[in-house]
């Protein structure tokens, strides 16, 4: 980590705020209220693992013009002062009588006209990170001002990554790739899967991850049952396919990709399935362009899996990536979000080998005007064997 | 991890549901709606790091009588089926048109009478982990049923840990204690603080943590500026005091305590401050009893710090612990939560050495009828020196 908590130069954050203010203007909001770790980090550079404590809410107000205002627990003042934010108002949290509500209300009342609109992300993939009763008190206390959904404002701005952000995600991908290359050091027949999970996280840290926010995976004969479970103590055995899927973090930016390994010699079915997943990803890498919709990516991957002889798995086949492990859009049949140059995305096809047995494959890309540029070093075309 | 995702026998969860149902009955709720990772884990044993993805909401409904109902994304069905929960309803999430809202509405409409009440945690330290617009659609779709705050119901039940839970927290504390004992292997003059943070997380994993959800700390001459920052690349130097504060996790249960180390010989001020923090904690360990209020613990620690010659720091001086890094109550002057036997708590006094320089000290306990029982192996009375 750099000695400042700024991560980027102030100009990066100023450009973000201008983009948000442009979008707010079009949407008719007089201020944005942001409460999530990613949104706060995006505007301010305030990066801390302290979000892990649910005790205190944190607020950033982006007015229609001018600089953002942080309304935060006093415990965060020291760190916020090291960011580019100059307007910092604090209270002693947690306060069971008034946990920042009146301070936030007064701040918004000054910045938003009496009949104005406060934009708040309320839509798909958003959460309000403050107690609901406090939100209702805030809303009532600010009337006749109204709260309106600002999901579109935030998502359309945040989903286009700057080159500085792309560089950060590429760096995190490189860390994970180096750790994946070392999996044969820690996995093999007889090793318990939970030990492999622990060792793999240590490898990620050793290769430069600041922390490991996500690790899931699975192992079983030729494939696995699901992709979100923690690891059982069961020992790996010959014929298993092991999958590790990680969201490691460096300087606040995530990677999110996985790798598969055969324990011992891979069966023909396992090799063919891996090859189909790899080739379907290859087809999508060649075909994906700005102007397509998120659902088109789902269609491309599904068709390619069938063409390469695999049975496509359900669920989404990719998604956005950056400040959180997953961001919008989702590669599902229903997501009509336009794909644009500058989006960082995962391609994540899944195949069903038989009931209860799947295999998944994932790469991270940035979409360019004329191509999909890989951010994760490409997986080997053939399923690697750990012998 | 065990081969099942159950963590505990089904009887543990059944007892929890009965306790919640008793409390719901007194509060007049006809069902509880739970959306947070900790609340879902508490009722079901469903443990996954997949919560790291904000894409999908997850719902558990606890009816006034009978078994809980999981209304969850299809991607979680396999894992939920391995818990004790038998009533599982799924949808293909994320769905931009209807992300589980109608399925949840239909579920609640069946379980809650037309003029009944749905209890939802809405108070201090709670968040609604679903999009706000979806909550409003759900609320309107269920009218004339009403949503009412169930924070008290959930907190009064969850805050009393079973012996099985206490054992889990004690195990996690033991893992962290072994890692803290090994800090001299990874820290010393010349070592960058960010490398120490990475290595310490690897030590925690090596000692048995499933993952490391939280690590913060600081280092500076005799103390540090704050306790929530990520680590800068600055090298440790003679005269620094290094503090590491971790929330490691094993089988879903957290520890949360810290340790201080002098780099080289400790100054007299650093040694005296550490001794005052240690002694104030000792006094609180002796004095704390069920029947006191959370604010009494704050008072005990503050008075003891002054008596031992330190300047008490602001903020809260301890809190609950268990399924999340921090739980209610808070040791602040305003928190009137009664302390009861079975609560797992942290004692976390802080001292101000001079403006911008603090030192903190933390232990984890379970409150018993006649004493405070340590769960974290007690810190050394004297500030250890890494030479």
Automatic annotation (TrEMBL), chains A, B:
<dbReference type="InterPro" id="IPR001714">
    <property type="entry name" value="Pept_M24_MAP"/>
</dbReference>
<dbReference type="InterPro" id="IPR000994">
    <property type="entry name" value="Pept_M24"/>
</dbReference>
<dbReference type="InterPro" id="IPR036005">
    <property type="entry name" value="Creatinase/aminopeptidase-like"/>
</dbReference>
<dbReference type="InterPro" id="IPR029149">
    <property type="entry name" value="Creatin/AminoP/Spt16_N"/>
</dbReference>
<dbReference type="Pfam" id="PF01321">
    <property type="entry name" value="Creatinase_N"/>
</dbReference>
<dbReference type="Pfam" id="PF00557">
    <property type="entry name" value="Peptidase_M24"/>
</dbReference>
<protein>
    <submittedName>
        <fullName>Xaa-Pro peptidase family protein</fullName>
    </submittedName>
</protein>
<dbReference type="InterPro" id="IPR050659">
    <property type="entry name" value="Peptidase_M24B"/>
</dbReference>
<dbReference type="InterPro" id="IPR000587">
    <property type="entry name" value="Creatinase_N"/>
</dbReference>
<feature type="domain" description="Peptidase M24">
    <location>
        <begin position="168"/>
        <end position="367"/>
    </location>
</feature>
<feature type="domain" description="Creatinase N-terminal">
    <location>
        <begin position="16"/>
        <end position="160"/>
    </location>
</feature>
């Amino acid at each position: 980590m750099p000695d400042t908590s700024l991560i980027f130069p102030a100009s990066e954050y100023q450009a973000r705020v201008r983009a948000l203010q442009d979008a707010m203007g079009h949407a008719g909001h007089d201020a944005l209220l942001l409460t999530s770790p990613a949104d706060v980090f995006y505007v301010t550079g305030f990066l801390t693992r302290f979000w892990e404590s649910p005790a205190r809410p944190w607020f950033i107000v982006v007015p229609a013009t001018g600089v953002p205002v942080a309304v935060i627990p006093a415990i965060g003042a020291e760190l916020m002062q090291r960011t580019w934010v100059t307007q910092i108002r604090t209270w002693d949290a947690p306060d069971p009588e008034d946990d920042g509500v009146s301070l936030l209300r007064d701040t918004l009342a000054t910045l938003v006209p009496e009949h104005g609109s406060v934009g708040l992300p309320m839509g798909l993939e958003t959460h309000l990170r403050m107690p609901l009763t406090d939100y209702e008190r805030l809303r009532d206390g600010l009337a006749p001002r109204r709260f309106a959904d600002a999901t579109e404002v935030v998502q359309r701005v945040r989903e286009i990554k700057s080159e500085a952000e792309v560089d950060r995600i590429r760096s995190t991908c490189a860390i994970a790739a180096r750790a994946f290359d070392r999996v044969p050091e820690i996995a093999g027949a007889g090793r318990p899967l939970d030990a492999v999970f622990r060792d793999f996280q240590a490898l990620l840290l050793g290769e430069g991850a600041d922390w490991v926010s996500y690790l899931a995976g699975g192992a079983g004969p030729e494939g696995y049952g699901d992709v979100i479970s923690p690891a059982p103590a069961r020992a790996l055995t010959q014929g298993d396919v092991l999958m590790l899927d990680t969201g490691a973090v460096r300087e606040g930016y995530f990677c999110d990709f996985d790798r598969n390994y055969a324990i011992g010699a891979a069966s023909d079915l396992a090799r063919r399935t891996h090859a189909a997943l790899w080739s379907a990803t290859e087809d999508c890498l060649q075909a994906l362009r700005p102007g397509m919709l998120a659902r088109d990516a789902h269609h491309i991957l599904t068709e390619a899996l069938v063409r390469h002889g695999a049975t496509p798995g359900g669920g989404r086949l990719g998604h956005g990536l950056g400040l959180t492990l997953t961001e919008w859009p989702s590669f599902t049949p229903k997501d009509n979000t336009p794909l644009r140059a500058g989006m960082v995305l995962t391609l994540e096809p899944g195949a069903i080998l038989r009931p209860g047995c799947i295999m998944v494959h994932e790469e991270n890309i940035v979409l360019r005007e004329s191509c999909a540029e890989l951010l994760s070093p490409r997986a080997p075309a053939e399923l690697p064997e750990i012998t």
